[in-house]
């Protein structure tokens, strides 16, 4: 199923782990370089800017090929231009296949052809089915999954997650109207098996190159689960999608449940992240907690924004200071010690700069100069007119 050489993919995983160990100081730089020299690796662009530039170049190449074939057949087609769109999708997949069979992987050109193929396929299906959203999302879900399994691009794993969630939403809308009110609970029920299913597959995973896609699906499920029960999201989408008319002084059904959900889920994420020592879940928990505060303030502005920010900053400062003092001397478990797998040179450099500046700040002491200046009529030390 995978178009790339599996040995090269396994070597890429070994090289990545060796790089982490070298950066953390567990192995010397010479040993890391010796490991890299003995591994056959694919040519890729780790530099994001270079990859983006190659992606732009690939977009121009893909559009040029499609434009060339359009000029060749434009006179022979009548109104059946949707077949031309399907042909553009075929060109995209063929280009992705040709580029992926080389020794390059994730270099930007293949990204352009894969994403372009998915986009043109979605447009072609939309034109053919008169913009039937459920059919479009179903096809993109299938093609995105197959594309990830074959090309191992994380963009396809993310597209699969979004398309799969879209299929669930439009499937609910195709049911009787009384089911639409249960959409938040249905999305929660969809996110839960997506999370636990991805977690179980990661535990049984034999091929390390699928680990990134499963981790992305797992984290996507956490974000989807939170937004499915967030009060602001549920209320506003109930007005926009379900057409509910919420009068002044009234509220959505199960409002108190969504209020509790909005804050208890971020708290659960933070607790789970600290227990499992998972940095990504910690970031998800912190960001979701910030959005929960924004959710409440969106409807209930108790005080002016500047006062709220001042109080929030003071509370955050006190909490951070208390936490640092409690954890700075711990060496196991949850600790404030530097993570060897995290780049800390920036913090060390900042500490050195601050220390050096503080050490160089000394009070000025008046010094009696042996040389006496005199004369002159203006500011400063001038000289007289005689020796």
Write the layout of secondary structure elements.
Layout: H1 6-24, H2 29-37, H3 48-73, H4 81-100, H5 109-128, H6 133-151, H7 154-173, H8 183-203, H9 211-229, H10 231-240, H11 255-276, H12 279-299, H13 305-327, H14 345-360
Helix pairs in contact: 1-2, 3-4, 3-5, 4-5, 5-6, 6-7, 7-8, 7-9, 8-9, 9-12, 11-12
What does this molecule look like?
- The N and C termini lie far apart (98 Å).
- This protein is mainly α.
- The protein has 14 helices and no strands.
- The protein is flat.
- Helix 5 packs antiparallel against helix 6 (133-151).
- The chain is 68% helix and 0% strand.
- It has helices spanning 6-24, 29-37, 48-73, 81-100, 109-128, 133-151, 154-173, 183-203, 211-229, 231-240, 255-276, 279-299, 305-327, 345-360.
- Distance between termini? 98 Å
Poorly predicted regions are: 344-364
Strand content: under 5%
Quantity of strands, as a count: 0
- Percent helix: 55-70%
What is the H/E order?
A: HHHHHHHHHHHHHH
* Average residue pLDDT: 80
- What Rg, in angstroms, do the CA atoms define? 30 Å
Largest sheet: none
- Supply the number of helical segments: 14
What structural class do the secondary elements suggest? mainly alpha
State the shape: flat
Descriptive tags:
single chain; 0% strand; 68% helix; mainly alpha; 387 residues; flat
